[in-house]
Design goal:
2 strands; 2 domains; 7 helices; 9% strand; single chain; Arc Repressor Mutant, subunit A; two-stranded antiparallel sheet; mainly alpha; disordered N terminus
Length: 132
């Protein structure tokens, strides 16, 4: 994993990335229109430049404006974030993550989700790819 993808995102950067993932691509004005309590266009441009430097965003020229899009899919970004959590908090143990979640009395995991997890585990044991 590249160093730029390991960097933590600020709250505002995460909000911008969520907008870009939902819309696939957006201009500064599009992002400003969707942000809660939006900062100025200049501030959003600065955030997008930072995200581009960190490797999270790509841009293309469209007339006089730039259009921004995520550099990686939401699924890939989620996988990278999970790997960071595994490394930092759980010593790379997926079992410890699952155990911690299941042991939490506030986690309300439904039977359907447990069945789905069991199916994925069985597929992994057989060396079959998961359809998730």
């Amino acid at each position: 994993m590249s160093k730029s993808h390991e960097q933590q995102l600020s709250r505002r950067e995460r909000q911008i990335m969520d907008i870009l993932h939902r819309s696939s691509e957006a201009s500064v004005a599009d992002v400003v229109a969707e942000l809660p309590q939006p900062p100025t266009h200049t501030a959003v441009r600065a955030f997008l430049s930072i995200l581009e430097r960190k490797g999270h965003v790509r841009r293309r020229k469209d007339g006089k404006r730039f259009i921004y899009r995520p550099a990686r899919s939401r699924r890939r970004a989620a996988r990278d974030a999970l790997n960071r959590v595994l490394d930092v908090f759980f010593n790379d143990s997926l079992g410890d993550v699952v155990a911690a979640h299941l042991a939490d009395p506030s986690s309300r995991i439904q039977r359907k989700e447990l069945d789905r997890i069991a199916k994925i585990i069985n597929q992994a044991r057989k060396g079959e790819p998961s359809d998730d």
